[in-house]
Amino acid sequence: MLFLTFFLGIVCNAIGYIPPGNINLTVAQITINKGLKQAYSFIIAFGLVEMVFTFAVMRFVQWLSSTVKLGQTIDIAMIFVFLILGVVTWRSRKEMPNTDTTDNKDSIRYGLLLGILNPMQIPYWLFLGTYLISHEWINIGYLSLGVFSIGSGIGAAIALYGFARFAGYIQEKFTLSSYIINKSIAILFFTLSAYHIGKVIYVHFIRQ
């Protein structure tokens, strides 16, 4: 049973990081600008925080799902997260890539920070967590959730590793400049921020 719980954690969270978002796009950016080793440091740090994050959300999934304004808060938070990441990426688009891997501290700190500031995963785990618990795929005991959360962190790391390798492959295969890639990632961040702005406007001003 614990093996199934562990496997579910890996699969569920790996799938959760496939759609473009702030984390996988950041991994792609780090790979392009600083190299794969720096991206690996980010991924490991992020994966460790993701284990704790998943455990906390799954443990309190019923309480969080009853918080009426949680969805609104997440949308507003994501507007600022994507906007900030977009501005940072846009401003660094002309910087020359630096693949010096002698110091990974910045990538580690960045991974820890984004692991904590990752509100997009909350609605994902609220939906999926409620489903898994209600169908008794996993239980809310500390051991079961601990095993599930470890699998979750590994699943996130696997998905982000795939993004890092793919970003490196795309840059090498098509000889794309870091300027073009950074500019494209910045535009994606701005687009995602605009999406959440539109969602908030629709929910609060149009639908009502």
Outline the structure in words.
By secondary structure, this protein is mostly helical. Helix content is 80%, strand content 0%. α1 packs parallel to α8 (142-173) and α5 (70-91) packs antiparallel against α9. The model has no long low-confidence stretch (mean pLDDT 83).
Largest sheet: none
Radius of gyration: 18 Å
**Approximate shape:** globular
Q: Name the helix and strand elements from N-terminus to C-terminus, one letter apiece.
A: HHHHHHHHH
Query: How many strand elements?
Result: 0
Mean of all residue-level pLDDT scores: 83
- Roughly how many Å apart are the termini? 46 Å
What fraction of residues sit in β-strands? under 5%
List the helices and strands and how they pair.
Elements: H1 2-16, H2 22-34, H3 36-59, H4 61-65, H5 70-91, H6 105-116, H7 121-134, H8 142-173, H9 178-206
Helix pairs in contact: 1-8, 2-3, 2-8, 2-9, 3-6, 3-8, 5-9
Question: TL;DR?
Answer:
The chain is mainly α and 208 residues long. It has nine helices and no strands. 80% of the residues lie in helices and 0% in strands.
Offer a few descriptive terms:
208 residues; mainly alpha; 9 helices
